[in-house]
Amino acid sequence: MNQSLSSALSTPPFYDRLQALRDALKAQGLDGFLVPMADEYQNEYVAPQSKRIKFLTGFSGSAGFVIVLMDRAIFFTDSRYTLQAGDQLPQGLYTLFDTAKKTPSAWLEENLLTQMVIGFDPRLHTARQIERYEAVALKKNATLKPLAENPIDALWTDRPQGSLTPITVHDIGYAGKASVLKRHEIAEELKKKNLNAAVITDPASVAWLLNVRGGDVSYTPLPLSTVITRVDGTVEWFVDPRKVPHDVDKALGSDVTRYAETEFPAALKRLGEAKARVMVDPEETAYATIQTLRENGAALTFESDPCALPRACKNNTEIDGMRAAHRRDGAALVKLMAWIDQTAPQGGVSEIDVEQKLTAFREQGNLYQGPSFATIAGSGPNGAIVHYRAVKETTRQLDKNSFLLLDSGAQYLDGTTDVTRTIPLGTITPEMRDRYTRVLKGHIALAAARFPEGTSGADLDVLARQYLWEAGLDYGHGTGHGVGCYLCVHEGPQGVSRRGVAPLCPNMVLSNEPGYYKPKHYGIRLENLQYVVELFEISNPDMKMLGFEPLTLAPFDRRAIDATMLTSREKEWLNAYHARVCKALRPQLDETAGQWLIAATAPL
Question: Cβ distance 331 to 591 under 8 Å?
């Protein structure tokens, strides 16, 4: 049973790196060091030159946090990656914790000793994060010390260079609103709050505000950059000048002044010296940025990134683009499903074969730019690893009499997709059919939900879990995340989880992805993207009612469904959804795939 996720990683280089880091800390009089996954922009997915945790530990996932002390090292990740981390971390060097059971703050509170001095890179932690760690340190009479240089960077002699992929203009036909209008809307918000400027350090917000896209981060069209936007509608943009073609400057006009990234600290200092009233988001902005503003005299107002909510609430052009992207994406996925049904029984099909074939089908569609994240094609026990990634050393043939969990997405110029289907191969057990149906029932419950304006994702999360809970089952990840429009496949502030506190608003796009995972056996996840709509037929002057409209178009596998477990309303929803899928996708398919789709979407 091959579940290894490592790429033949050996312990010695990681032992040496950990020891060298400890030697460097000792030379600076430090007792420990905090290593987050984030980069200088607080991105979830980071560019190769920012993968410090991977350099130090060998772990290749997107969620992690390391605490290095002189006598031990602690690794934290969430439930999506605990199996992967257990496999990839060098044996004997790190103690692993699931953040659902133990957070870094809780661990520090239990283990910090009096007079300890713990270093951190102030560029890689948000102000709120450091506040939490400082509160713990104060309780323990310990100290957190910001460092001028990251000691890992000094050890990383072959550290990759940053990307110089040219930045492009995101056409108004896809963006739906001119950058100048967005900039002036933000300026009006600043004016209402009597503020002079906002410092925006999230590259996704910069990309949205300026209607630009880049290629600095794998799978996500981000230009790594920051802006200072002012109350008069002007913007200072801090970006590597080698990445900005003339047509981008021309499109932005004279109200956007471009500076090199290295000039950002000096601009913050000038804001402070001018005693400017500045908006910053303490949950997204680096500690170093806020400290520079504060130490130089700026009057800070802590509020959410002013671009985050308007970016999340897509305009009609963006929603239309997302619909079109999902129609093309659905056709590619159906072609793949038909191909799997035809070829898998013959044997010899690997997880990597599935990934490559899906990419080939997507490339046939218009406006395709690449995957929106690394495809998860987990056969049998690999499907139980929530964020599994097949590599040459780990890929397995598609298991007979088991499930293939396929989670993938694409970037198109007009939208971003993310879809998961679980495909039965051969004969599945009654238990597997029961679990699949419970996950499907939860998916339908959330998809069909009707709720009043002001409802948050946390209010809805239980809908997707209820049928698993009835059987004493659950899943560790959130039920849904926000999704950008030709931007980040994970976007805030919207989400459906216990922590999803942001109210859901019309035209927010979210995933709906309950799951179930039986370690070393199989995994199930069923994911659609959907967007929030107002339900005018049941809204009234006292209460606006909202619901969801599906974007994803792909059949759920009828062979895995226990129809006796579905209510009549659930069957009606599923049959109506499948009819919609067939109508939208059939014209794009050849005869073979088209006939497969007709059978796959037949009414229950």
Answer: no
